[in-house]
Design a protein that fits this description.
mainly alpha
């Protein structure tokens, strides 16, 4: 879990400078400096050919992110989603990411893989919020949501509908 919290803190700092402020004092106080990853360069992988275990909070958080995107998928695909709508979606996804950071408790190796996946979601969310190719940010999140069931053993996952 410390890797996700470390990533969260790095993301919070980056977003603070970009104007997309997240206030997470709890995560900052629990931050450990011993678990930094460069999630941008790492690829998701299975656990010796087997999907990674999850906990209930991971299913809940990822499902909420998926539902938020799925609700808006048609106007995103048809390029009718407005800039304020992308920003609102980014804010909603931020709430679900905070939930994941605060509640998800996975074994260390599974957590490291989740770190890689959530980094993609955070990048997409930041891109939607900033207004820099907002649709591209949504597509990053959609791709991460499509990868999630390929690498994590979420038996209750419902495939993203679009």
């Amino acid at each position: 879990m410390h890797t996700v919290k470390s990533l969260a803190l790095v993301f919070i700092i980056a977003l603070t400078f970009s104007g997309f402020m997240i206030s997470l004092p709890t995560l900052a106080s629990e931050h450990k400096h011993d678990s930094h990853h460069n999630a941008q360069q790492e690829m998701l992988k299975l656990n010796q050919g087997v999907k990674w275990p999850i906990d209930a909070s991971l299913h809940t958080g990822m499902s909420k992110i998926k539902n938020a995107v799925e609700t808006n998928i048609s106007p995103i695909h048809t390029k009718k989603f407005t800039s304020p709508q992308y920003q609102a979606l980014a804010s909603e996804i931020k709430i679900h990411l905070v939930y994941l950071f605060e509640n998800c408790k996975l074994p260390t190796k599974a957590d490291a893989q989740l770190h890689i996946l959530l980094f993609k979601v955070m990048q997409g969310s930041e891109q939607m919020h900033k207004g820099d190719d907002q649709r591209g940010g949504a597509i990053k999140i959609i791709k991460a949501l499509q990868q999630y069931p390929q690498y994590f053993d979420d038996k209750n996952w419902q495939v993203l509908k679009h």
